[in-house]
Amino acid sequence: MNLAKFPRVHLAHLPTPLEPMPRLSALLDGPEIWIKRDDCTGLSTGGNKTRKLEFLMAEAQAQGADIVLTLGATQSNHARQTAAAAAKLGMDCHILLEDRTGYTHENYRYNGNVLLDVLHGASIEHRGPDQDMHAEMEAVAETMRAQGRRPYTIPGGGSNATGALGYVNCALEMMGQFAESGLEVDHIVHATGSSGTQAGLVTGLCAMNAGIPLLGIGVRAPKETQEGNVFALAQKTAEKLGCPGVVGRADVVANCDYVGPGYGFADQATLEAIDIFARTDAILLDPVYSAKGAAGLIDLIRKGHFKKGERVVFLHTGGAIGLTAYTHEFDVAARV
Ligand SMILES: *Cc1c(COP(=O)(O)O)cnc(C)c1O
């Protein structure tokens, strides 16, 4: 495995911190909980997509692209980080936003990630739910090519084998931090959506023979679909890295019991996780991804799946800027 052979641009503040969560650990009275702060990657309020974009944007530059196209849900953290990366590298950015929730709240439509998309100078067009967004994006790219532009298309969440290299890199970084601090980690837990994060991590961990189980907490798809998507992308990533077959099907584990009412909708457990993380170790989560991951972590500790004496690392994938789009979930007016 040699990551250095892939073109990469510097976008993220790395390494991100690895910190203990003493107050949360005490509250739950289970395993020792640590947090890997990929919410602190630094680009336009941070998040996990920045690691993927280091490899994706380098490929866009190598191909001579003058505009990057990508897609996501209205409050896409990936779209926001892509818009920021494009601005930083002097490229144009065009985003297709899919209305997956039907929310009409002003904050959902114009605040949070959407505000930042606009500030970074991205152009935006909208699509309704249940469309083939990748086909829509390819059609837009084709029109641009006919007009003499050189578009580079990035799939949803930046999740292809190139983007997943960013999380192979994160696996390397974490293993280095664990060794440095003498931390023996029993589990790594994180929110999984478009699969690139988990696919990259599992590929990196397997290639290093790390022996640390990785658990993705799903935010959208059912377990079988999610695990299938992650495994397929992990296989491609391993091939790209020159270690085909290094990931076994059994290494890919997702728990999709915390999706709640669906993608982009918070339930009681999601909101409780936001509350608990903010009040204990002052960590801000987002209602779409990281809080569902945290809700899974909390519930699995309460059920005894993660036990006293173990050490669990929660990978914080970012997204807290999305809180400003979800003010309708928090009864702020009644509490001030
Ligand atoms: C995109 C995203 C995820 C999920 O990562 P994938 O690579 O899409 O599986 C998790 N958390 C946040 C905050 C995200 O924006």
How is the secondary structure organized here?
Elements lengths: L17 E3 L1 H7 L3 E6 L11 H14 L4 E7 L3 H13 L2 E7 L7 H5 L2 H7 L3 E5 L5 H14 L4 E3 L7 H20 L6 E6 L3 H12 L6 E5 L4 H19 L12 E2 L12 H12 L10 H13 L8 E6 L20
Parallel strand pairs: 2-10, 3-4, 3-6, 4-5, 7-8, 7-10, 8-9
Antiparallel strand pairs: 1-2
Helix pairs in contact: 2-3, 2-7, 3-5, 7-8, 7-9, 8-9, 10-11
Pyridoxal-5'-phosphate binds next to helix 3, strand 7 and helix 8.
Major sheet attributes? 6 strands, mixed
Q: Separation of termini? A: 54 Å
User: Structural class of the helices, strands and pairings?
Assistant: alpha/beta
Number of H/I helices: 11
Helix-strand topology string:
EHEHEHEHHEHEHEHEHEHHE
**For the residues shown, what is the average pLDDT?**
98
Q: What is the radius of gyration?
A: 19 Å
Shape: globular
The unreliable regions are none
What is the share of helical residues? 40-55%
| Widest beta sheet: strand line-up | 1-2-10-7-8-9
Number of strands: 10
Q: Could you tell me which ligands this complex binds, including any ions or cofactors? A: pyridoxal-5'-phosphate
Please state roughly what percent of the residues sit in beta strands, choosing from under 5%, 5-15%, 15-25%, 25-35%, 35-45% or over 45%: 5-15%
